[in-house]
Structure formats: C-alpha cells, structure tokens
C-alpha cells in the first residue's frame, strides 16, 4: 500500500506547473465532448492546469474570454452530448502568420505550452505548423516588446498532441476516428427506417452519405445493410456500369425482392474522375427500369445526435492517453496523434499520418485506384472485398462434396442473424451444401435441419435476436441423437454461433470423438453473447449492441436524477459473472462506480463510495449513478446496496433501484455488430473450407487434431482461431469466464474519471508506432 500511495503522490505531481489547453476544430463529431472531458479530468488529476479554448483556432487567435481555466465540474454531464460544447469554427486568421503570432501571445500570457487539438487532418496539420514556428514566433514577440526575454526562455517549447475527430474516418493510420461509429449509427437508423417504407411501396432508394473524398461511411453502411449497389470514390465503377447496375437491380426484383437500396458516397466519381450524382443514378433507374425511385441525402443528420458507446469509450481512452503523451513529451519527440489499434492505445507521428492521407488523395487524383484502396488500410480493403462477395450471387465454380450445418446456441444476441447470413452465402459461393438448424443442439438432436439457399437469408442483416432460435441445451444430454443426425445428414462441418454454451458444447463434442467417429469433423465457434465472456476473443457479437442499450437507459436515468436533485440510482446490469457490460456502460455514462465480480470489493470500498457520493452532493452536481453487475457479489446484492446507500445517505441523498433486465438482449444490431458478424461469418467458413480440404481422404472427412475445432475471435489486432482444447486450460468453468480479461485495465479509467484517488501504475501507455505503406497492409481485425 505504501508503494501505491507513493506512486499516487508522484502521479498527482507529475503535471505540476504544466498548463494544458484543449480545443476542438474543423467539422464537429460526436464524442468530442467525451474527449474534452477526459483530457480535462486527466490533466487536473495529474496536477496540471487545464484551459478550455472556445470556438477552435478562432478562439486561440482572439484570446480574451475564449480561453478559460477549467475545473473538474466544468466538464460534468457532457459525455452524452453530441457536437462540441466548446464550439468549433473554421478559422482563416490562423492560416496566416500574424494570426499564429496572436495565438502564441495568448498562450504565453496564460503560461500554456501544451496543446491538445481535437479535429480533422487540416486542424492537426495547422497545429504542427504552429509548433514548428513557435520559436520564431516568440522571438518576434520579444522584438515587438510584447513579451520579455525571460518569458520567451521559460516557454521556449510547445508540445502538441492530436486526437482525430472526424466522422469520415479518412485519417490514415488510425483504425477509427472519433465520431465515425456514431455517424454509422445515424446512417443505419435511417436505412432501417427507409427499408420499411421501400418494402411497402416496392421502391428503389438512392441514399447519399457523407465522407468527403473517403468512402468509409458508404462502404460500411453498404456492408451493414446489404445494399444492392455501392459507389465509393476509391473504387469507381468500370465503364458501362450503368448497364450492369440496371441488370442487377432488375434481377433482384425478378427474384421477389420488393426493394433496392443504392448507397452513394458524396465524393463518388467514375473512372475518368467525373462526379456521379445521386440524381443521375435516380434518373437512370427510372428511365431504364421504370422503378419508383427516391433520393434521400442524409446530410448533417450524420454529424448529429448522441455519441455511441464506442465513441464515448474511444474518446475517453484517447483523451487520457493524450495527457500521458504530453507528460512524456520532450522537445525531440515528434508531434503525435493518439489512436486506437485493435483495443490498444498507440501514438503515431502526426506528419507521417498526414503524409499517407495526402498520398491516398494523390493516388485517386492520378487514377491509381487499386493503390488508393490499399493505402486506406487493410480493413478498408477487406470490407470492400467482402461487400463484393456477399452483395450478389455468383455461381460456384463447381459443387463441393461438403455439407456444413449452422446453429445458434445460448441466449439471443444481436448480430447472430448477420453471421448466419454471411456464412450461408459464402458457403454457397464455395459450392457447399448449407444446412441451418433450429433451436441449437436440441434441434440438432431432434433433426430440425433444413437446407438453405442464397435468398433464404435475405434481409437478415439488420434483425436482432436469433431467427434460427437458440437453446441452452448442451450436447451431453442428447449425444446419441446428435451423432445419429450428423450421420444421417452427412454433416462434415459445424458452425456454432453463440455464447459460453456454444464453446462448452463444442468442447463436449470434441471430447466425445473417442466414442463417436462421426464427430471427427471440422467445428468452429463464433462467440455471440451480450456478456462477452467467451474465451478466445476480446469481443463477442452482441456485446456492442447490449452496451448501447444499457447506455441509452442510463442516459435517461441520469436525466431523471438531474431533475430530482440529490438522488442516487443503483442500476443492475446483466452479464452473469462477467463485468464487461457494467464496466463499459459505466465509462460510457460517467458512472460513479461499477461493481463487478472480477474486481473484488469489501465493505470498506462500499463505505468509501458512499462517502464519495456524500461529498459529491455538496457540489453543484447533485446526482449519482452506481452500476452493479448481477452476480458481482453473493451477499452484497442490489437490495443490500440500496439499503446501505439509503441509510448512510439519509438526509443527504435518496436512492432508487433500476434493474435493466432483458432490454439489454434486444434491439437491432449496431453497425459494429453487423459488420463484425459479417466478417466473422465469412472468415469462419473460409477457414472451415480450408480445413475440410486438408482432412478429406478417399471421399470422407476425418478430423481429430486439436486445431480442427476452434473459436474464432478478435484478439488485440488480429482475427485468430484458438483450439477449444487449448482454451479449456484458461477457462474458469464455474463462473463461465476466461481467466484473463483485457478490459479490466479500463477500470482504472472509470475510477479516475469518477475522481477516485487511485494509482495509475498499472496504466499501460501507448507506444509510438510508425505509419508506412507496410504497416497499413497488416491485417487488422476490424
């Protein structure tokens, strides 16, 4: 403990004497407020002074009232707001030297030499120019007698850190920029809404989405909605595309589809660099096919609304890391951008990112389109290839001898249907016979098995829950019957999409191989559960949707508490013994505490939390929100916490309980879950096909090596296959948990942002990584 106390002291002094300023610039993006909040609080936490600069670079140039010192409460209750509360403006003055001279004087007057800029590539490039000129600007101020020599010496160096805030996701080197996920949420809400009216009237819709010269939003929303045709600037359609597109649209209609969705990026061009407009596409469809066609331009809706859970957590992580980067900066470290790679924080040299971002534009201008797609990064390229594979049925080269069966096991989770859809379609592309099974392992034992075709899974992408039906039944209760049906239908591969039971079930099948030769087949588990408790993956399908559902409920609860004053809500989340859901939701809604099984707590901790809330009630923020995972403690139940808080807070605050329950399982899947499910479905079946080829001898499949039964999952940055027999060694079966969980280090952030005195020795700083054409070609998971 003494060591921890010492570390805490050291940390609280690390930023003493430092002054950090935060500004948001360029187009706004949802999640900027969460970033401002995290930078401000982390800055104050390490003992620095933090200043908020209002109206972006304009406020920096104008100075005066636009630069204000912030305290802990300045950024309270803003995490759920879209846009940026400190304002953003496009600024002409800052692009001139005299504008930057005034900006330098304003910073020096406040003693600020650390600048955190949240904005797009233009804003970040501007910050870097400012930094390189800093010495010269100060000399000029000394010459003009505006500052003294001593002051110039004291503030001789400016540190800069950037956070990329842009809904376009057009900044190379970063997986996701702040606001991208929320913009996709807005787009998918609109597409889901339009789909229903299009079906009623048998219409064709042309949807134009934002993204400037980057096709990311169009691409992911096309992939996540199963659009019929897609225009992105990085890959213009071949000449004569008009004929092909109309032929495709006609085909889908003649097969019984009642609608067509065409998605077009605002920067769409043809092979000659000539813009393709949404009206041109509409007129074409009307003229050639006579379909009732409408155009919807989404416009600024995409920038609006509340930030998604992903954006809130991403921004909080990046804000915290930005302060760490400023603490560790020296005059020799290059200006850096804080980013996320997989689920790890990284720092990237700002100018390297800007350079590659410019290279993409140059490649597009010079019509080197293949290269443009590669420079966007491997996951962009993957998305594009998967979209092309799944959008239209291409006849398989030849019929394969293999039959694959797909089933859902456990509790329903959003994204299950999307995974079934992509798996079925990719299997058909490969010429396999594709079966689906109703009601999990129980259905497999009862023979509820049917063959499906390409169009049987149309429209499954955006549906929540499980269309096949799920059951928690494990195979050991009906092993003989399962084996009988595997033999009867000649199933050579089994794709099980589900939660902990799916993993446990496949393990039981593998362990029964000694008794039943029929089970010597290829098996793969796609983890799908809101609890995110399957070993072998960092994220399960459905957990993103569940976190968003819990977060929306908590936002409303917080609003109610703000109205009543002096009220603390105790909210119980699902998740079994796994605290992922309550921890991540806690970060996304700015909870005061989140109790989970993995982070053991005692009565002393509960007492400290009550005192913490009592202190909080003395400030202007008179509300509290405490999350509790359903199985976090055998004796400290939700009821117990309610009684404890009520009696200890008597006369200071009152308490209410909210149990979120099954609303966390429902709802349409989020864009992340749709995209992730689609990718995992494709990768799983491709892997299974490869394995089937390897073990196919004399007309039959015989597989009994460990690597013939795996869990597919995202681990750090890559999609990996882990044998279930290996995972067994790192699983806690009693509590249905992996023994090690990556998200536990997020709890430090939760506690720091809620103002608890904790040591951050366990905090893992991001490493500086370089951005080159080679690093961009590395296969990233998402």
Automatic annotation (TrEMBL):
Its cofactor is Mg(2+). Beta-D-fructose 2,6-bisphosphate binds at residues 472, 529-533, 567, 574-576, 630, 656, 662-665, 736. The keyword DNA damage does not apply. InterPro entries: 6-Pfructokinase_euk, ATP_PFK, PFK_vert-type, Phosphofructokinase_CS, Phosphofructokinase_dom, PKF_sf. The active site is at 168 (proton acceptor). ATP binds at residues 27, 90-91, 120-123. Residues 1-392 are annotated as: N-terminal catalytic PFK domain 1. Pathway: Carbohydrate degradation; glycolysis; D-glyceraldehyde 3-phosphate and glycerone phosphate from D-glucose: step 3/4. Its main location: cytoplasm. Homo- and heterotetramers. PANTHER family: ATP-DEPENDENT 6-PHOSPHOFRUCTOKINASE, LIVER TYPE, PHOSPHOFRUCTOKINASE. This is ATP-dependent 6-phosphofructokinase. It comes from Apteryx mantelli (North Island brown kiwi).
């Amino acid at each position: 403990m003494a060591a921890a106390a010492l570390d805490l002291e050291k940390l609280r002094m690390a930023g003493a004497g430092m002054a950090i300023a935060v500004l948001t610039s360029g187009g706004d993006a949802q999640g900027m407020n969460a970033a401002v909040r995290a930078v401000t609080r982390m800055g104050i936490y390490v003992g620095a002074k933090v200043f908020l600069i209002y109206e972006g670079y304009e406020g920096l140039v104008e100075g005066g009232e636009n630069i204000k010192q912030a305290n802990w409460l300045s950024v309270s209750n803003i995490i759920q707001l879209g846009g940026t509360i400190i304002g953003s403006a496009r600024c002409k003055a800052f692009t001139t030297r005299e504008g930057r001279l005034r900006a330098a004087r304003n910073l020096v007057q406040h003693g600020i030499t650390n600048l955190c800029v949240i904005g797009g590539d233009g804003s970040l490039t501007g910050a870097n120019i400012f930094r390189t000129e800093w010495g010269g600007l100060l000399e000029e101020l000394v010459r003009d007698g505006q500052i003294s020599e001593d002051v110039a010496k004291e503030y001789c160096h400016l540190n800069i850190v950037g956070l990329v805030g842009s809904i376009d996701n057009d900044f190379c080197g970063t997986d996701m920029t702040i606001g991208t996920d929320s913009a996709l949420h807005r787009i998918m809400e609109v597409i889901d809404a339009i789909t229903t009216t299009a079906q009623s009237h048998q219409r064709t819709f042309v949807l134009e989405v934002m993204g400037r010269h980057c096709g990311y939003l169009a691409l992911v929303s096309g992939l996540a909605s199963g659009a019929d045709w897609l225009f992105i600037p990085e890959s213009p359609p071949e000449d004569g595309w008009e004929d092909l597109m109309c032929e495709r649209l006609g085909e889908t209609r003649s097969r019984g589809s009642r609608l067509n969705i065409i998605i077009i990026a605002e920067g769409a061009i043809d092979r000659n660099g000539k813009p393709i407009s949404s009206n041109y596409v509409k007129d074409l469809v009307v003229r050639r096919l006579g379909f009732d066609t409408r155009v919807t331009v989404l416009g600024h809706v995409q920038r609006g609304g509340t930030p998604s859970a992903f954006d809130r957590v991403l921004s909080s992580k990046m804000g915290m890391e930005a302060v760490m980067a400023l603490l560790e900066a020296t005059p020799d470290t290059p200006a850096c951008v804080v980013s996320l790679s997989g689920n790890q924080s990284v720092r990237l040299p700002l100018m390297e990112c800007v350079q590659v971002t410019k290279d993409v534009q140059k490649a597009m201008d010079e019509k080197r389109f293949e290269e443009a797609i590669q420079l966007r990064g491997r996951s962009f390229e993957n998305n594009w290839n998967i979209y092309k594979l799944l959008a239209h049925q291409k006849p398989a080269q030849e019929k394969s001898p293999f039959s694959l069966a797909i089933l859902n096991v456990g509790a329903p989770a959003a994204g299950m249907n999307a995974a079934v859809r992509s798996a079925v379609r990719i299997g058909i592309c490969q010429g396999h016979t594709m079966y689906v099974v109703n009601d999990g392992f129980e259905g497999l034992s009862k023979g509820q098995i049917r063959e499906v075709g390409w169009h049987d899974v149309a429209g499954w992408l955006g549906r929540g829950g499980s269309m096949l039906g799920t059951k928690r039944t494990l195979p050991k209760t009906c092993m003989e019957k399962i084996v009988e049906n595997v033999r009867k239908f000649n199933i050579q591969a089994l794709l099980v999409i589900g939660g902990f039971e799916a993993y446990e079930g496949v393990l039981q099948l593998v362990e029964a191989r000694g008794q039943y030769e029929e089970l010597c087949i290829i098996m793969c588990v796609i983890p799908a559960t809101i609890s995110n408790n399957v070993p072998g993956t960092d994220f399960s399908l459905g957990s993103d949707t569940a976190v968003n559902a819990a977060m929306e409920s908590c936002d409303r609860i917080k609003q109610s508490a703000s109205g009543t004053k002096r009220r603390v809500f105790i909210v119980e989340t699902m998740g079994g013994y796994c605290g992922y859901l309550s921890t991540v939701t806690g970060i996304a809604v700015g909870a005061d505490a989140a109790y989970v099984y993995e982070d053991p707590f005692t009565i002393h901790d509960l007492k400290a939390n009550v005192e913490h809330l009592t202190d909080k009630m003395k400030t202007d923020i008179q509300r509290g929100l405490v999350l509790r995972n359903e199985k976090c403690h055998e004796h400290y139940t939700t009821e117990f916490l309610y009684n404890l808080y009520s009696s200890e807070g008597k006369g200071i605050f009152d308490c209410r309980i909210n149990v979120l329950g099954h609303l966390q399982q429902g709802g349409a899947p989020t864009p992340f879950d749709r995209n992730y499910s689609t990718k995992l479905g494709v990768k799983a079946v491709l892997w299974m096909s490869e394995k089937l080829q390897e073990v196919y001898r004399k007309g039959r499949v015989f597989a009994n090596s460990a690597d013939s039964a795996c869990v597919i999952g995202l681990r750090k940055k890559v999609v990996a296959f882990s044998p279930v027999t290996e995972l067994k060694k790192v699983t806690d079966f009693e509590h249905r948990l992996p023994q090690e969980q990556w998200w536990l280090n997020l709890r430090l952030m939760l506690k720091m942002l809620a103002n608890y005195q904790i040591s951050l020795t366990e905090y893992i700083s991001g490493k500086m990584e370089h951005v080159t054409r080679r690093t961009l070609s590395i296969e990233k998971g998402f």
